[in-house]
């Protein structure tokens, strides 16, 4: 997997919206956060576009993605927010362009589809992390979410333990492999396509938002029957963002589903649709342990030498 150089103050970064237009005020607030980090922000031409013709809109969103990768001045691409529709972009992406012009690519939720499409065909480390409009706005932003961008500058590895959130072990053990995964619904939608996650020998991250327990159960069963859990080395359960009553049901589903597996499973990582939303690189080596519960993730960028 290709790793990019760490960011430096003064670098140009692009914001695109491949899954839907952001709230303008929220995006403006998020941009100020990036500028405070010392970055120069360039907004894609079609970030706010809304059209009845979905085909034309998809072409514009694709153009923004290609423009950002093509521009040699751009060092990173941050998605504005989630939404829907990125699966329709994946077959049209110029992956040769990406391989020849690799950039830091960052997002989550519906962007999960693109994170693994770009990995599969662009051989590029991607990043599952908080997005500019939906997570860095003044209403939602937390210090934890904002700090997730710091390793892009320092090249430091990530250590996630109970200091960030109280972690609970479902299944004891130790697992090591590439960190992959993201939103469960998007992992399901990619199954059987060239863009599905490659979880062979990997630590699999799963998060979700506002799905009832029976849907979580059904989706996990589909992944199991598709063989996705046959060769994983561990599972990291992120936030499932449900109301308290449904959360109890979801936790029971997760406990029952993973009760007899042979790999470690740990829950309650603040990754995904939550605040704070801790960003993690995908495609890099990770180690999951349970005594104590701890996730170590290698840096997603290369440190710059002095």
Automatic annotation (TrEMBL):
Keywords, comma-separated and alphabetical: Carboxypeptidase, Hydrolase, Protease, Serine protease
Record carries keyword tRNA-binding: no
Domain (LD-carboxypeptidase C-terminal): residue spans on this chain: 176-288
Domain LD-carboxypeptidase N-terminal: 13-129
Pfam families noted in UniProt: Peptidase_S66, Peptidase_S66C
Gene3D superfamilies documented for this protein: Class I glutamine amidotransferase-like (3.40.50.10740), LD-carboxypeptidase A C-terminal domain-like (3.50.30.60)
Similarity section: Belongs to the peptidase S66 family.
Listed name of the protein: LD-carboxypeptidase
Lineage, opening ranks: Bacteria, Bacillati, Bacillota, Bacilli, Bacillales
């Amino acid at each position: 997997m290709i790793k990019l150089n760490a960011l430096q103050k003064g670098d140009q970064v692009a914001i695109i919206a491949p899954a839907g237009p952001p709230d303008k005020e929220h995006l403006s607030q998020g941009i100020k956060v990036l500028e405070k980090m010392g970055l120069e922000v360039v907004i894609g031409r079609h970030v706010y576009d809304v059209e009845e013709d979905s085909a034309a809109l998809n072409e514009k969103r694709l153009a923004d993605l290609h423009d950002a990768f093509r521009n040699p001045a751009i060092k990173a691409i941050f998605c504005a927010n989630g939404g829907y529709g990125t699966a329709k972009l994946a077959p049209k992406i110029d992956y040769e362009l990406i391989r020849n012009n690799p950039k830091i690519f960052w997002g989550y939720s519906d962007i999960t589809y693109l994170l693994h499409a770009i990995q599969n065909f662009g051989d590029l480390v991607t990043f599952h992390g908080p997005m500019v409009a939906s997570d860095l706005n003044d209403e939602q932003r937390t210090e934890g979410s904002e700090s997730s961008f710091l390793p892009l500058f320092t090249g430091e590895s990530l250590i996630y333990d109970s200091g960030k959130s109280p972690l609970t072990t479902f299944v004891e053990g130790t697992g090591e492999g590439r960190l992959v995964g993201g939103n469960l619904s998007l992992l399901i939608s990619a199954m059987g396509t060239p863009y599905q996650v490659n979880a062979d020998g990997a630590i699999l991250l799963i998060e979700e938002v506002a799905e009832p327990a029976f849907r979580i159960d059904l989706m996990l069963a589909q992944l199991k029957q598709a063989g996705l859990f046959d060769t994983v080395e561990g599972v990291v359960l992120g936030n499932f963002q449900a109301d308290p009553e449904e959360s109890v049901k979801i936790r029971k589903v997760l406990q029952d589903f993973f009760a007899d597996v042979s790999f470690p499973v740990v829950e309650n990582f603040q990754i995904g649709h939550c605040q704070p939303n801790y960003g993690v690189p995908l495609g890099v080596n990770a180690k999951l342990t349970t005594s104590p519960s701890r996730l170590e993730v290698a840096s997603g960028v290369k440190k710059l030498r002095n």
